[in-house]
Amino acid sequence: MAAPFKFELVSPERLLLSAEVTQVDLPGTEGDFGVLAGHAPFVATLRPGIATVTKSGGEVVKIFVRGGLADVSPAGLTVLAEKAIPVSEMKADQIAAEIAVAETAVANAIGESARQAAALKLAQLKDLVGSLKAA
User: What φ, ψ does residue 122 adopt, rounded to 5°?
Assistant: First the structure.
């Protein structure tokens, strides 16, 4: 069994999860990645997607994160999410609202760079719909 480490997931609204975990898999902007105890320190940006958390007791928790930062340090892993909702609490209308916000951002983007960034976020949210169906 993998060694446990400290994990915290924080959103602007609240501390969503603070627990001893054995593994956390996150949706990074440069690709998905997993963190185990003793992982090398680093900071990564997150894209919209599902964070999969395996608690020390074996319970698996899936949480939707809408971007943010992951900070791996000797003290553990901290995720500062723009938004975070347990998948078990998500509803279809919430997902539709997230997609509508992203579509508005694409339509209102000023400049090609901003438009591309907004379009990428929209595409990631649409991909998330498929991930949620599989979760």
Answer: -60, -45
Is residue 65 domain-shared with residue 79, that is, in the same domain? Answer: yes
Say how many Å lie between the first and final Cα of the chain, rounded: 24
In the predicted model, what is the mean pLDDT of the chain? 89
Domain containing residue 96:
91-134
- Read off the tokens for 32: 């998905």
Helix, strand, coil shares, percent, the chain, to 5: 30, 45, 25
Q: Does the structure show a pLDDT above 90 at 120?
A: no
Q: 65 and 27, same structural domain?
A: yes
- How many domains is the chain built from? 2
From CA 56, how far away is CA 54, in angstroms rounded?
Answer: 7
pLDDT at position 95 is 78
What is the Cα–Cα distance from 47 to 66, expressed in whole angstroms?
Answer: 6
